[in-house]
Design goal:
This protein has about 375 residues and is an alpha/beta fold. Among the domains are: about 1-110, Severin, CATH 3.40.20; about 130-220, Severin (3-Layer(aba) Sandwich). The chain has ten helices and 17 strands. The protein has a ten-stranded mixed sheet with strand order 2-1-4-5-6-17-16-15-13-14, with helices on both faces. Strands 3-7-9-8-10-11-12 form a seven-stranded mixed sheet, with helices on one face. Strand 15 (about 275-280) and strand 16 (about 285-290) form a beta hairpin. The radius of gyration is 22 Å and the shape is elongated. The two termini are about 40 Å apart. GO terms for molecular function: actin filament binding; phosphatidylinositol-4,5-bisphosphate binding. Keywords: Actin capping, Actin-binding, Repeat. It holds the Pfam family Gelsolin.
Length: about 375
């Protein structure tokens, strides 16, 4: 087991300046990535991503690989809290799991993201002078394009996706005959990302359409076999069975307790109390919001992510598919005419849309039901 506390002084004053900062969690430490490494994630690791927009606000994203150890996940959560505290408790915190990232995370990487096999604990680093490792990536998605490392075999291919074959000095981008336009547009960008992160910008990129396979490709993969038509799109769809519920979380009794304060819309803004933390449960649609009241004690604020994890477990949601967003008190969210305010409004509108989809109500009907909570985030001066 790793030590229970991360080393102090993990973050330098530079993180207070606007920009994108990315760290990999290594043995309870946040190790910054080089610019050329940003956008590539090992599935056995956890990462922190800070999107600092200066006066417009900041977001701290915790990214968890599908094979990341529980120790690394705990360390990542503690480091995210430490970074949040270092920045005055003002950023919005998010937790994402590989393959289920929110759009606000994906947009930080305009060249797309790639998932690689391995991680710190598995010793993925190669010995100096070792020959190139051949890798095959599947490019998939519509709104959120991802590149995932798959088995180096024709069996991994299909006509409906794009693939990247990394051979070291040459990177082949293969376009399936039925790939969607978004994948076709992004395959070259992701090939460039892999070239820059893995090959120090020195590899040659070759574009190949299905049916035009080169001898170099056939030498590695063998004779081409019959390809499947396609695989289902990975973009997740909302569960259609539930609505949003509001819970109060408090340790006033000495132990953490959760009390449901509303189980149906409309959500009254008076339900939000400044001395406590609250969970807005939309887990059936893959999202949990944690709101930290300005008067909540330090323990409640520090344990916000743990609260969400416990809640997800208690509700029997799939932890690997449930996104978590931790919102600070409205003093951060109510700055007028800035990007943070607009982003917060948009997230609540998206939540309303997902509920309308779940309940088969019209979007306008659900938005009216959610007006109290929208108005809270936009001007309740009493909390």
């Amino acid at each position: 087991m790793l030590p229970l506390q991360p080393a102090q002084g993990q973050f330098s004053p530079e993180v207070r300046e606007p920009g994108l900062h990315v760290w990999r969690v290594e043995k309870m430490k946040a190790v910054p990535l080089e610019a050329s490494e940003v956008g590539a994630f090992f599935n056995g690791d956890s990462y922190l991503v800070l999107d600092n927009r200066g006066e417009s606000g900041a977001d701290v994203h915790m990214w968890i690989g599908e094979k990341s150890s529980r120790d690394e996940q705990v360390a990542g959560a503690m480091l995210a809290t430490q970074l949040d505290n270092f920045l005055g408790g003002e950023p919005i915190q998010h937790r994402h799991v590989q393959g289920y990232e929110a759009p606000e995370f994906m947009v930080l990487f305009p060249r797309g993201v790639s998932y690689k096999e391995g991680g710190v604990e598995s010793g993925f680093r190669r010995a100096p002078g070792a020959g190139p490792v051949h890798r095959l990536y599947q490019i998939k998605g519509k709104r959120n394009i991802r590149a995932k490392e798959v088995e180096l075999s024709w069996a991994s291919f299909n006509k409906g996706d794009c693939f990247i074959l990394d051979l070291g000095e040459t990177i082949l981008s293969w376009i399936g005959s039925k790939a969607n336009i978004f994948e076709k547009q992004m395959v070259r960008e992701i090939a460039s990302l892999i070239r820059d992160t893995d090959r120090h910008g020195k590899a040659r990129i070759v574009d190949i359409n299905e049916g035009e396979e080169t001898p170099e490709m056939l030498k590695v993969l063998g004779p081409m076999t019959e390809l499947g038509e396609s695989t289902p799109e990975e973009d997740t769809k909302a569960d259609r069975s539930n609505s949003a519920h509001l819970y109060k979380v408090s340790d006033a009794t000495g132990s953490m307790t959760m009390t449901k304060v509303s189980e149906k819309c409309p959500l009254d803004r008076d339900l939000l109390v400044r001395d406590d933390c609250f969970i807005l449960d939309n887990g059936a649609n893959g999202k949990i919001f944690v709101w930290k009241g300005s008067g909540a004690n330090a323990e409640e604020k520090r344990e916000a992510l743990k609260m969400a994890d416990n809640f997800i477990q208690q509700m029997n949601y799939d932890r690997m598919k449930t996104q978590v967003e931790i919102l600070p008190h409205r003093s951060i969210l109510l700055q007028r005419n800035n990007k943070t305010q607009q982003t917060t409004n948009m997230k609540l509108v998206v939540l309303a849309f997902s509920i309308s989809y779940a309940k088969r109500l019209s979007y306008s009907q659900v938005l009216i039901l959610m007006l109290p909570i929208l108005s809270y985030f936009n001007g309740n001066d009493e909390l």
